[in-house]
Design brief:
With 231 residues, the protein is mainly beta. It has no helices and 23 strands.
């Protein structure tokens, strides 16, 4: 989110400042199993913590004030999304309880089940409705109908994780970070890092990765990854 790194944790929502410091940004203490951030605000899923008035599981909840307050949007007491992605009014979620991959095209008002979720990561196309990528067994699959069907995208590398914003699709493979500017048709290697890459995320100004349990970030104009420090 811009130059901020927002963490959804078992204890709630935090901003990552550096390798030794985080700051709680939401007074609501809940187990944030799924987190998606858009221009409208924060979307989350998970379980309520001690003293919380949220139902278990929380379903899909929303905050328009950076986590200061939350409202229930859908599936309250029904789903616990461990994968949660959004693009405009579209939502993709993988429910840990049922194992179902679920899709909403209308901001969570109604949901369609797509069968058992086979993907370890999901990235909606930021420009095309119902266009989405999923990672399964090191391969990237493209769907043009919100996962009613999908086909594999050929890559020369095994894919661990993906993230997509307008103009940039990034993927990790072991220690290597790749980028595509044409929806995965072709890729270029951005950088080889010193350790295997875990989670990846990006904004228009920054790319952040997790290596060995530590978060690193780099400016898009200078891919020198450093431990993220408070400005």
């Amino acid at each position: 989110m811009g130059n901020q790194i927002i963490l959804g944790t078992h204890e709630g929502l935090f901003e990552y400042l550096n390798e030794k410091s985080v700051k709680r940004i939401s007074p609501e203490r809940f187990d944030v199993m799924g987190l998606a951030i858009s221009a409208k605000g924060f979307y989350a899923s998970g379980h309520p913590g001690a003293g919380s008035k949220l139902k278990d599981p929380v379903g899909l909840i929303f905050s328009s004030d950076s986590g200061q307050s939350w409202k229930s949007l859908a599936l309250t007491g029904i789903v616990d999304f461990h994968i949660l992605e959004t693009n405009g009014k579209e939502f993709y979620g993988a429910d840990s309880g049922s194992g179902q991959l679920m899709y909403s095209s209308n901001s969570g008002k109604s949901w369609a089940k797509r069968g058992l979720n086979p993907f370890t990561d999901i990235a909606p196309d930021p420009k095309i409705r119902a266009s989405v990528l999923g990672v399964k067994d090191g391969k990237v699959f493209r769907s043009l109908n919100a996962f009613k069907s999908s086909s594999v995208i050929k890559t020369t590398f095994e894919v661990d994780s993906i993230d997509w914003i307008e103009g940039s699709l990034i993927a990790s493979s072991g220690k290597v970070l790749y980028e595509s500017t044409n929806a995965g048709t072709s890729w270029k290697k951005l950088i080889t890092l010193p350790a295997p890459i875990g989670t990846i995320t990006q904004s228009s100004s920054m790319i952040a990765v997790v290596m060995n349990g530590v978060i690193y970030s780099a400016s898009r104009s200078n891919l020198e990854f450093i431990k993220h420090q408070k400005k």
